[in-house]
Amino acid sequence: MVAVATGGTYLYYASKPKLYTASTQVLIQASASDVGFSAGNATRTANNILQLLKSSPVVEEVVRSVGGSGRVTAAASSDSDFVTVTVTADTPQRAARLANAYVDALISGRESQLRKNTEEGLRAARQDLEALPPGPQSAGQRTQLKSQIADLQAALTLPRAGAEPVGRAQPPSGPSEPRPLRNAAFAFVLSLLLAVAAVYVLDRLDKRIRHVEDVERAYGVSLFGVVPHHQGQDPMVDQSFDEAFRSLLTNIQCADLDRPPRTVLVTSALPGEGKSTVVRNLALAARDSGLRVAVVESDLRNPSLATMFRIEATPGLVNVLSGGMDLGDALQRVAADAPVAVAAPGAATNGDSSPVPPGSISVLTSGTASANPPAVLATEGLSSLFDQITAEYDLALIDSSPLLTVSDAVPLLARADATILVARVGQVTVPAVRRVTEILRRHPRMNVLGVVANDVSSKEFKRLAAGYFGTAA
Fold first, then answer.
1. Which helix (H) or strand (E) holds 50?
2. Exposure on the CB side of residue 85, measured as CA atoms within 13 A
3. How far apart are CA 84 and CA 55, in angstroms?
4. Cα dihedral: 59, 60, 64, 70 (round 10)
5. Residue 390 in contact with residue 396, Cβ under 8 Å?
6. Which residue, among 413, 468, 465, has the nearest Cα to 440 in the 3D structure?
7. CA 429, CA 218: separation in Å to the nearest integer?
8. In this structure, is the dihedral angle defined by the CA atoms of residues 112, 117, 122 and 123, taken in order, positive or negative?
9. CA 145 to CA 129: how far, in whole Å?
10. Under a CB-based contact definition with an 8 Å cutoff, are residues 267 and 403 in contact?
11. Closest CA to 162 of 125, 123, 119, 108
12. Which residues, including other chains, have CB under 8 Å from residue 182's CB and lie 6 or more apart?
């Protein structure tokens, strides 16, 4: 806003034609017979002179003598009898000639008007003198009229216009208009103030949570992890990214040293906050730590783990709960010799009946599409399914639906040992967080470990890394 307003203002005024201003002064002479020019009343005198300057006779005289007219103004001094006449024109010479021509036409016109008024007054006084009857009764009036006639005859001999020029206007050395630098500076200050006000208003209206500290404060639970923003193909190659999930895994394992959680539900308030990505990378970190990890996809409406792990989409959770398949046949073992992000399709093995080796990942996808996901997830068989998984695996990560879009994840809150909330910084809003906390308060049996701030900027992540991870990223 500031750049456009400043640059646009400068270019606009720089492209306008240049104008030049010249001025000269007129000395006002007090006269009882000429109330139009009254010394001592600056405002009235300036207004009267300005009206005279713009009158048709004066303008016609200026056009006849100079060949054109300009923009004329008049300003009277409050502590003197001088009036400044200013003219603006397209060239310096024309501005000076116009200023002098206006003053000359003004004084010439006033002289002609005063002579005309004086001649009319003299004619009327002579007529009144001739009309007086002879005799001593009218002697005083005759004397007064004779004195008036003598004064008027003297005024005709020495006519005065009530004003006289003081010097002559000179061509200006430079243009008076436009002033692109001055106007651009004014536009800069004004647009800067408006921009600051706009940013303040937008910031007040923007309900998104933009900082890690605000995530913890809004959810009212402890900050369980911080995940930095990453644009690469394989985020686990990034040391800081890898360290973030190792730290998150450590926090989960240390949440309860006597009974560490075996089934962890990962959910969020809104779609697109990265809960599935957190599940995938947390599973990789657990695999690298030597744990036997099971990943269960309970998001039946928008499944994504099959694509992330490069495995088959079916069979899965729906097939097992419907009784159409055993759990062991539905679990798909992910290849342990390569990162998931670069694993080739078909690297998983289906129906592997061998014991689950340490440092491995098995995935139970959502399976066949269901017409009624809430009913599927509310079945009693889900609890026994989790029991079977925890009997063979060290950690079960459950990827669920967002809490605010559908109610599918609500039955899982009480069935999982612990719940982790994922909040994407810059996307999740304060009203959404408030609705999530209301949902969580209605389920006192659940165990919320904390919130994971996802997609944190690199700058903010580096600032927080030492405090949360014990080492600089």
1. helix 42-53
2. 36
3. 18
4. 20
5. yes
6. 413
7. 9
8. positive
9. 6
10. yes
11. 108
12. none
pLDDT in tens, the chain (473 residues): 899 999 999 999 999 999 999 998 888 765 545 545 555 566 666 677 777 777 777 777 787 778 777 788 888 777 777 888 888 998 999 899 888 888 888 777 777 777 787 888 888 888 888 888 887 777 888 888 888 888 878 777 765 656 778 889 999 998 988 889 999 999 999 999 999 999 888 878 888 888 888 898 899 999 998 998 876 545 444 567 888 899 999 999 998 888 889 999 999 999 999 999 999 999 999 999 999 999 999 999 999 999 999 899 989 999 999 887 899 899 999 876 544 433 333 333 444 456 788 899 999 999 998 888 888 888 888 888 999 999 999 999 999 999 998 888 888 888 899 999 999 998 899 999 999 999 888 887 788 999 999 998 888 777 776 554 444 33
CA distance 413 to 446: 6
Residues 6+ apart with CB under 8 A from 224: 248, 251, 252, 420, 449, 450, 451, 452
d(CA 262, CA 252): 9
Give the whole-angstrom CA distance, residue 321 versus residue 318.
5
Instruction: Report, in angstroms and rounded to the nearest whole number, the Rg of the chain calculated over CA atoms.
Output: 47
Torsion over CA: 115, 116, 120, 121 (sign) = negative
